[in-house]
Each structure stands twice: as structure tokens, then as C-alpha cells.
Design brief:
The complex is a heterodimer of chains A (113) and B (106). Chain A is mostly beta strands and 113 residues long. Helix content of chain A is 0%, strand content 49%. Chain A has strands spanning 5-7, 10-13, 19-24, 31-37, 44-50, 53-56, 65-68, 75-79, 88-95, 103-104, 108-112. In chain A, strand 5 and strand 6 form a beta hairpin. Chain A is globular, with a radius of gyration of 13 Å. With 106 residues, chain B is an all-beta fold. In chain B, the strands form two sheets. A five-stranded mixed sheet of chain B has the order 1-9-8-3-4, with no helix packed on it. Chain B has a four-stranded antiparallel sheet with strand order 2-7-6-5, with no helix packed on it. Chain B is globular, with a radius of gyration of 13 Å. Classes of the chains: A mainly beta (113), B mainly beta (106). Chain A binds chain B through residues 4, 33, 35, 37, 42-45, 48, 56, 89, 91, 93, 98-107, 109, and chain B through 30-32, 34, 36, 38, 41-46, 49, 85, 87, 91-99.
């Protein structure tokens, strides 16, 4: 039973490009959470999704950021027109149900040059 | 949305027990306390969780006070590889605090 899979592990983008981060939850998990960790800082909640629904996006920046979790396939965190301040580690976690423990992926490290 | 409060940092001698406290005074009756740790910049690793009773597994023990307003994670014999940031989280709105940076010293 594979864990939470995130890809790519490392992503380099030039300013103004788009970044797409993928997360495949553990088998049987229908809840996905995205977190961002800036250098030397803690984990900051971004968005919580269930299949085809955004449940809580209170931690998402209002512009340029979007997330989806389609019926089939991985969850996608999309950052448009990236800026240097978007450079961070982005972690995905999944769970079987809300209010229950997570399993985290290894993260995607985004570097904007 | 239960929040947690943890000390910013702690030191522990190698081989000794490390006791990491966490306050969660606004916890609700059905909310679990979870502990994770993050080594360097890896993905957070699950350690242990509990609701009311004390819990133990191969990694650690979790002591939860009777009123459930606080808990303590115990690493019984800390090793250098236990140096990490330890997060206490009460699920509800998926909020992590800044955690405790535990440094295990030789």
C-alpha cells in the first residue's frame, strides 16, 4: 500500500511561469490537504479537498493559486505566474475521513528563479 | 478550532527521556491529539495519537491529562536521530503550530 505520492520532488520555474504540483493520496483516502512551508517556517494550511469538492480554502492566497481533486486522478495544486516568494516546500497529506490523522507525502520543493 | 501551544525549543541529552509538552485548552470532547515530527525538510512523520487514555507505541508514549487540556509526548531514550521539530495538533481545522525544536545532544 503505497503512501502519499507527490511529484515532482523538485520543480524549478522562472518568474511568470505556471507550477503544477501533483498529489496522489493513499489508497482508500478521499480527503486531501495541502500545506506550504516557507524556508525556516512552520507548516501553513492552504486547502482541504474531498473528491470533486473544495471543503476549506481559507489558507489559499486569493490570486494565482488554485486546487482541485477530480473524481479520477491526483489532486493538483496550481500556481499561476509564479513569483520568487512562492519558493517553498509544498506538502500534501491525505486521510480516510475528516478530523482524523493524516499521512504526509515527501513534498514538492518549488524554486522560482 | 482547537489551537495548541508548545515551547519553541528544548534540549535533551542522548539516552535520556525527552518530555515534550503541549497545551490544547480549547479541545472538544471528540477531538484527537496527534503528534508528528519533521526532520530537516522531510515530510512530517506520524508519531502517535490519543483521545483520553495514555497511549504507547514503538516510538513514543503519550500522556493526556484527565481534563484533556494538555498532553506530553515522551521519547523514552532519545537518540541523536530524534533531533527534529515536533508538532502537536488537534484536528478540526488542520492547523499546525510552530512546534518544538528538540535538539538531542551527545
Amino acid at each position: 500500500n503505497a503512501g502519499v505520492m507527490q511529484n515532482p520532488r523538485h520543480l524549478v520555474r522562472r518568474r511568470g511561469q505556471e507550477a503544477r504540483l501533483r498529489c496522489s493520496p493513499m489508497k482508500g483516502h478521499s480527503h486531501v490537504y495541502w500545506y506550504r512551508q516557507l524556508p525556516e517556517e512552520g507548516l501553513k494550511f492552504m486547502v482541504y479537498l474531498q473528491k470533486e469538492n473544495i471543503i476549506d480554502e481559507s489558507g489559499m492566497p486569493k490570486e494565482r493559486f488554485s486546487a482541485e481533486f477530480p473524481k479520477e486522478g491526483p489532486s493538483i495544486l496550481r500556481i499561476q505566474q509564479v513569483v520568487r516568494g512562492d519558493s517553498a516546500a509544498y506538502f500534501c497529506a491525505s486521510s480516510q475521513q475528516d478530523n482524523y490523522g493524516y499521512t504526509f507525502g515527501s513534498g514538492t520543493r518549488l524554486t522560482v528563479v | 478550532d482547537a489551537k495548541t501551544t508548545q515551547p519553541t525549543s528544548m534540549d535533551c541529552a542522548e539516552g535520556r527521556a525527552a518530555n515534550l509538552p503541549c497545551n490544547h485548552s480549547t479541545i472538544s470532547g471528540n477531538e484527537y491529539v496527534y503528534w508528528y515530527r519533521q526532520i530537516h525538510s522531510q515530510g512530517p512523520q506520524y508519531i502517535i495519537h490519543g483521545l483520553k487514555n495514555n497511549e504507547t507505541n514503538e516510538m513514543a508514549s503519550l500522556i493526556i491529562t484527565e481534563d484533556r487540556k494538555s498532553s506530553t509526548l515522551i521519547l523514552p531514550h532519545a537518540t541523536l536521530r530524534d533531533t527534529a521539530v515536533y508538532y502537536c495538533i488537534v484536528f478540526g481545522k488542520s492547523t499546525f503550530g510552530d512546534g518544538t525544536t528538540l535538539t538531542v545532544k551527545p
